Amino acid sequence: MQKAYDNEKKNTTVAWGLWFFTGGLGGYRYYLGDIKYAICMTLFNWMMPPGIY
User: Where exactly are the structural domains of the chain?
Assistant: First the structure.
């Protein structure tokens, strides 16, 4: 059981780096395995024109 957990454990430094550089596009969500939420983030941010925020 512990070996399976260790194989799926994600590096927090990588997750933070992805959040910093690809936060709006959801890059860190892809890395963490939350694919549906990541796709929604990517599509939403891709469709929004700059300056709307």
Answer: 2-47
- Inform me whether the pLDDT recorded for 4 exceeds 90: no
In the chain, which ranges are E strands? none
Q: Which residue has the tokens 């933070």?
A: 16
If pLDDT is split at 50, 70 and 90, which confidence band does 26 have?
confident
CA distance 18 to 6: 21
Of 13 and 47, the structure prediction assigns the larger pLDDT to 13
State the Cα–Cα distance between residues 48 and 37, nearest whole angstrom. 17
Integer Cα distance of 32 and 23 in angstroms? 13
Q: Which of 26, 48, 47, 44 is nearest to 35 (CA)?
A: 26
